[in-house]
Amino acid sequence: MGRQIIKYGLMFIGLVLIQVLVLNHVQFSGFVNPYIYILFVLLLPLSSPRYVVLILAFLLGITIDIFSNSLGIHAFASVFAAYLRPFVISLISNRQEDISDYPGLMQNKIRWFLSYITIMVILHHTVLFFIEVFTFSNFVLTLFRTFLSSVFSIFVIFLSQLIVFRD
């Protein structure tokens, strides 16, 4: 148990630092903004109580908001993704015994993992970008921005699973 807390604590700190110090400064023409901090919520054990996942998602989002000066949009998007996580998992899983308690790439099938992160990242990014602009006047432009950022974020998350998160 103590080892899990240290592991997820380091993951929380590492993803926040990577997001704030590196990825918040990566923008291609204002359309591609990679947000991989959501990986923390995605990799929490599936057996975690729902309220713990929601609280951790809020803490993650509000931490990103504090460093990004973004008035709670990351907290809302993170909690939204954490709330929908059990539904997405039940949607893409045929049976409970098909998946590991740790929803990482190395513990599950590649197809399951790609489906999981794709759906979750698109949900997170859609809410994040539409709350950020807070209007539907440029609906297509916001959808395009969501799509490009999601593709880039999914690529970085998948790559991180291959390189860093092997356990």
What keywords describe this structure?
167 residues, Arp2/3 complex 21 kDa subunit ARPC3, 6 helices, 0% strand, globular
3D structure, described in words:
The mean pLDDT is about 90. This protein has helices spanning about 1-20, 40, 50-70, 75-90, 110-135, 140-165. The chain has about 170 residues and is mainly alpha-helical. It has 6 helices and no strands. The longest helix has 25 residues, at about 140-165. Helices cover about 65% and strands about 0% of the residues. The protein is globular, with a radius of gyration of 15 Å.
Task: State the end-to-end CA separation.
Answer: 15 Å
Let me know the number of strands: 0
The portion of residues assigned to helices is: 55-70%
Largest β-sheet summary: none
Shape: globular
Low-confidence stretches: none
- Number of helical stretches of at least 4 residues: 6
User: What average pLDDT do the residues reach?
Assistant: 88
- CATH-defined architecture: Orthogonal Bundle
The chain-level structural class is: mainly alpha
Number of domains: 1
What would you report as the Rg, rounded to the nearest angstrom?
Answer: 15 Å
Strand content: under 5%
Q: Indicate the CATH topology.
A: Arp2/3 complex 21 kDa subunit ARPC3
By CATH reckoning, the class would read Mainly Alpha
What is the chain-wise order of helices and strands? HHHHHH
